[in-house]
Amino acid sequence: MRLVVDLNKCQGYAQCAFLAPDVFAMHGEESLVYNPRAEEEQRERVARAVAACPVQAITADGLDGAGESAASGREASDAR
Ligand code: SF4
Predict the structure, then answer these.
(1) What is the domain count for the chain?
(2) Hey, what's the signal peptide range on this chain (predicted)?
(3) Is the pLDDT of residue 11 over 60?
(4) 20 within ligand 1 shell (Cβ under 6 A)
């Protein structure tokens, strides 16, 4: 899967490096390095990182920031 981090938005909060350490890593205090072509197996972790990034700096194939967690939240509240 492909992903892009907008390094102009990224504030180095390192949420992504914590959630998907095989894809994102902090280099020094503030700069992020990442693998723009992450393995498919990392998809779920990348999805968590996308959702967790406080500034929505991560964009990934087939995942749009607001996407899945918002949708599943809606399902859960509808299913009464
Ligand atoms: S979680 Fe977002 S702001 Fe934090 S290091 Fe990752 S991309 Fe940057």
Answers:
(1) 1
(2) none
(3) yes
(4) no
CATH of the domain at 38: 3.30.70.20
- Whether ligand 1 lies within 6 angstroms of the CB of 58 is answered as yes
Q: Hey, how many other C-beta atoms are within 10 angstroms of the C-beta on 56?
A: 13
**What pTM did the predictor assign?**
0.77
Q: How many CB atoms lie within 10 A of CB 29?
A: 7
Q: Whose CA is nearest to atom 3 of ligand 1?
A: 10
- Out of 19-28, 37-46, 50-59, 65-74, least confident range: 65-74
